[in-house]
Amino acid sequence: MSSVTIRPARVDEQPALESLQPRASLANPGDRESLLAHPEAIALPVEQLEAGAVYLAEADGATVGFAALLRRADGNAQLDALFVDPSAWRRGIGRALVNHCAGRARDWGSPVLFVVGNPHAEAFYQSCGFVIVGSEATLFGPALLLQRIL
Q1: Mean pLDDT of 68-75
Q2: What are the distances in angstroms from CA 127 to CA 31, 96, 101?
Q3: Cβ distance 97 to 57 under 8 Å?
Q4: Which of 62, 83, 116, 141 has a CA 20 to 30 Å removed from the CA of 35?
Q5: Cα 61 to the chain's mean position, in Å?
Q6: Furthest-apart CA pair in the chain: how many Å?
């Protein structure tokens, strides 16, 4: 795989991103059961795309992942989505997307980047500089609340 480019996703790319999301989730044993029970969870709000808050990772002309970044009411930012195509796992794309979003959040003036992550993703997020600060209830069950100081 050649170098990865990260850029804002376009609204017309919404269907492709929404098809990547279940591929990534269903390939992960920790997500499969919950996603099959709640297929309605696969949605990428067009408002996030219109706001320029969704970042797409491309390699060799193909979409290999995406992340969404939200502004929180407390002045911080939240990583709202992070998905990498299973064919591109373990190549640094997830980490590149996290780091890109951290940079954007810093540009916004956010001192902290939060993420609500599945417990099986804990090691990944910790390797990206996040620490656990609590837990949250989600549609898929208990999740970790993690933060990364920017």
Answers
A1: 96
A2: 20, 12, 15
A3: yes
A4: 62
A5: 20
A6: 39
The helix, strand and coil proportions of the chain, stated in percent and rounded to the nearest 5, come to: 40, 35, 25
Report the sign of the C-alpha dihedral through residues 113, 115, 121, 122, in that order: positive
Question: To which residue do tokens 């993703």 refer?
Answer: 121
Could you give the number of structural domains in the chain? Answer: 1
CB 110 within 8 A of CB 79: no
Confidence of residue 108 (pLDDT cuts 50, 70, 90): very high
Q: 94 is in which domain, residue-wise? A: 5-149
Cβ distance 125 to 115 under 8 Å? yes
Within 10 A of 74 (CB to CB), how many other CB atoms are there? 11
Measured distance CA(67)–CA(74) in Å, rounded: 21
Work out the pLDDT band at 21, boundaries 50, 70, 90.
Answer: confident
In 9-130 the beta strands, taken as DSSP E runs, fall at: 54-59, 62-71, 77-84, 112-117
